[in-house]
Design goal:
single chain, mainly alpha, 12 helices, 85% helix
């Protein structure tokens, strides 16, 4: 039993139990169109795939999410390396970043609508804004955590500054950077949906609001269920890439663990 509780099977069992509880509660405990049985949600999910409606909705949202995510991560890496390497850049940018970082995304949507309109540019900018800060903070922390001895050895061997960054600094800071990128990936999906709810005419956020107003509860829950599955798949895919890139890091951690 202890081995089962520590395995992934226990998490799957809990999800299945909650889904069964959903079905039982909808059939026997409540009589509300706003809480449909799981079977009705599954039918709506299958119908959405059959008509390609959900595929189109999620396709447009994933495009905006990935575009904003890639831009935000790229900018964060560049700015983070600059701030961690050049004290003057850190002193100049740190105050502004700490002022912008706590601002909630819904608070910046109204002024951005005036500047960017309600098209894709607005959503992509908001995702970029949200994905930028976790990667930036982790990049600065990761670069500063690089062993100074490794940098000194590179200097002793007359390795160029740019080559030192790519061969020594970035690989050493990669666990921190990937941790920030994983956090930003989840934020990017969340913020995309929120932006489409507030100022959207397409995408999963707009679809959810439309289903709510149309009182199509089963279609709404089907989209939410698919959103959860997409988020889980993105996270698992990122973890697989992370494990592949950091195989040396995980091997070292395993060796250092006490037996």
């Amino acid at each position: 039993m202890r081995r089962f509780m520590r395995s992934r099977a226990s998490g799957v069992a809990l999800v299945l139990f909650l889904l069964a509880l959903w079905q039982v509660s909808a059939v026997y405990w409540t009589d509300s169109p706003n809480w449909p049985p799981l079977t009705e949600v599954a039918k709506s999910l299958a119908a959405g795939f059959a008509s390609n409606e959900l595929i189109e909705v999620f396709g447009s949202s994933l495009y905006r999410m990935l575009a904003g995510y890639l831009i935000g991560v790229s900018c964060a890496l560049c700015v983070g390396l600059l701030m961690a390497s050049v004290p003057l850049a850190h002193a100049a940018l740190d105050t502004m970043i700490e002022l912008l970082r706590p601002i909630p995304v819904p608070a910046i949507v109204p002024p951005l609508i005036l500047l960017l309109g309600v098209d894709d540019a607005l959503k992509i900018f908001i995702v970029t804004f949200s994905a930028f800060f976790p990667v930036l903070v982790n990049t600065v922390g990761g670069v500063r955590a690089v062993d100074p001895v490794a940098i000194d050895v590179a200097r002793t061997l007359h390795v160029g500054r740019l080559r030192t960054v790519f061969r020594v600094v970035l690989p050493s800071a990669l666990p921190y950077i990937l941790a920030g990128m994983r956090i930003s990936l989840a934020l990017a999906l969340i913020v995309t949906v929120v932006a489409e709810m507030i100022a959207g005419s397409a995408g999963i956020g707009y679809y959810l609001m439309t289903m709510q107003y149309a009182m199509r509860a089963s279609d709404m829950y089907a989209a939410i269920a698919l959103l959860a599955m997409v988020g889980y798949a993105l996270n698992r895919g990122f973890l697989a890439i992370e494990h592949r890139l950091l195989h040396w890091y995980h091997s070292a951690s395993t060796v250092e663990e006490p037996h």
